[in-house]
Design brief:
The protein is of the alpha+beta class. 59% of the residues lie in helices and 11% in strands.
């Protein structure tokens, strides 16, 4: 426990004649003794950590941490370029860095009371008093004199109960919280960039599917119109096909909105003006899904920055409770002042001009309207809040991994099944169109085959998008892209 220093601008009028050595010895002894006072009981976490993930592969290795550049596994050079731009230019990450600077400065503010406060003073006065009169001697002239002084004032508050030391520890933990928050923002930004890029690819895929289906529908419409002109088709057949063509055309504008809005959102993520930002895109079929193994659940407590952030918040609240509890005990303050004072500047530093004062004071709260008690209750409430938040963060992390694992597995299975649906639907549509040319099939069958194919192809694009989103969610759930060792080394420095 260190002693706290508090600046005092005045010296007491009473001169202390006792030697300074005993007070210095006391100042050195008390911090050593007070180190035994810090450290109150901490609440139990009551965490249950499962041995394995339910949805994990039984042959998955126990130790598996996503690589720092996990996005390269999708094998998209444009996505990699966007990720690198976001890592250096994203404004949310820049805000998080600014918050680290503030938190570090707050550590310095909280630590200042643990050091002595020394203030230097110097003054020069020239005084002229007004003329005065007395009953016996008449009027006297004004009194004039000069006064010069120079001195030092020091104040030192003994942190015997550990209040200021606990406050410093709480600020240091808050600085750690700020660093983990930066890592959380960085990871979230990377996942958002990936998801937005996948949304752009899916919109481009859907536009291609709709335009291809629109071409097929218009081809069928031309054939039906020819049959109508030849008397082998009715007006109802023509109208139904025209409705299908119009439906395909009407589906294009919403996809254009999705495409351009996600492009604008991606521009903001890389700190670019949307008007000057372009994305080449491509297709979701060329995006590979990296192989991800979750490892053990216990690794998640160390690997995810949001869990470490919640842990640091809990540690900070523990020290805040200790500081609030220590405020109930007496405060011991030492104050000293030394310097020289003289009526002549030449004699200011002479032996006779030197003076000093020493004072010690003890302040004990007696009744403050339950202020200290309420502050302690508030600190305990915050401690309980962060305890529950930490427990929720851990449980939510386990749930995030489980949900991402099952989503990735099931959507990959659905993609294979949906691809079979598309293949069968396309064959049925091709056969129906061929038979329509030969006049061996009715138009209702052709219309049903068209609608089935169009719906199947659109669903396949949606399933591919969902699978890619599940993959990025799994990387986020596992803390991918974050290096705990780097954050720890930054904290030490």
């Amino acid at each position: 426990m260190y002693s706290e220093v508090k600046t005092s601008s005045r010296a007491t009028s009473r001169r202390c004649k006792r030697p300074i050595a005993p007070l210095l010895a006391l100042a050195l002894l008390v911090p050593a003794l007070s180190g035994c006072i810090l450290g109150s009981e901490h609440p139990a976490l009551d965490l249950t950590i499962p041995a394995r993930y339910r949805e994990a592969s039984p042959v998955a290795p126990d130790s598996a941490v996503p690589s720092l550049d996990w996005w390269r596994g999708f094998r998209s050079s444009e996505l990699t370029s966007l990720m690198e731009a976001a890592q250096t230019a994203n404004l949310d990450i820049a805000v998080a860095y600014a918050q680290i600077i503030q938190a570090d400065a707050q550590v310095g503010i909280a630590g200042s009371p643990l050091l002595p406060s020394i203030t230097g003073t110097a003054s020069a006065e020239r005084v002229r008093s007004a003329a005065s009169s007395s009953s016996g001697s008449g009027t006297t002239g004004p009194l004039q004199y000069s006064q010069f002084s120079a001195g030092l004032t020091a104040s030192y508050m003994l942190d015997f109960w550990g209040k200021n030391r606990a406050t410093l520890y709480a600020s240091e933990e808050n600085a750690t919280v700020a660093r983990y928050n930066r890592d959380v923002v960085t990871l979230t930004t990377a996942v958002t960039v990936a998801n937005t890029y996948f949304q752009i690819l899916a919109a481009q895929d859907q536009l291609r599917v709709i335009r291809r289906n629109l071409t097929a529908a218009e081809r069928i419409l031309d054939l039906i119109k020819k049959q109508f002109a030849g008397g082998t088709a009715s007006q109802l057949d023509v109208s139904q096909q025209e409705a299908l063509v119009a439906t395909q055309r009407a589906a294009i504008p919403p996809l254009e909105v999705t495409l351009h809005q996600n492009t604008a959102a991606l521009a903001v993520l890389v700190a670019r003006a949307p008007a000057d930002f372009k994305v080449s895109g491509g297709t979701t079929t060329r995006i590979a899904v990296p192989r991800v193994t979750p490892g053990l659940p216990s690794q998640l407590l160390y690997q995810r920055p949001d869990i470490r952030q919640a842990e640091a918040q809990l540690a900070s609240s523990n020290f805040s409770v200790e500081a609030a509890r220590a405020a109930f005990f007496p405060q011991i303050q030492l104050t000293a002042q030394t310097g020289s004072q003289s009526a002549a500047l030449a004699a200011l530093f002479g032996p006779g001009a030197w003076y000093y004062t020493l004072a010690a004071s003890l302040t004990q709260p007696i009744f403050d309207g339950f202020l200290l008690e309420s502050q302690l209750k508030q600190a305990k409430g915050v401690q309980l809040q962060y305890l529950q938040a930490y427990r929720k963060a851990v449980l939510s992390a386990f749930a995030d991994v489980e949900k991402a694992l099952v989503a990735l597995h099931q959507y990959a299975l659905q993609e294979r099944l949906q691809a079979q649906v598309v293949s069968a639907s396309r064959k049925a549509f091709d056969v129906a169109e061929t038979q329509l040319h030969g006049g061996t099939v009715n138009l209702v069958t052709v219309l049903q085959a068209q609608q089935t194919l169009f719906t199947a192809e659109n669903n396949l694009v949606q399933v591919r998008l969902t699978k890619l989103l599940a993959a990025s969610s799994l990387f986020q759930a596992l803390g991918g892209g974050w290096n705990p060792e780097r954050t720890a080394s930054v904290q030490q420095h």
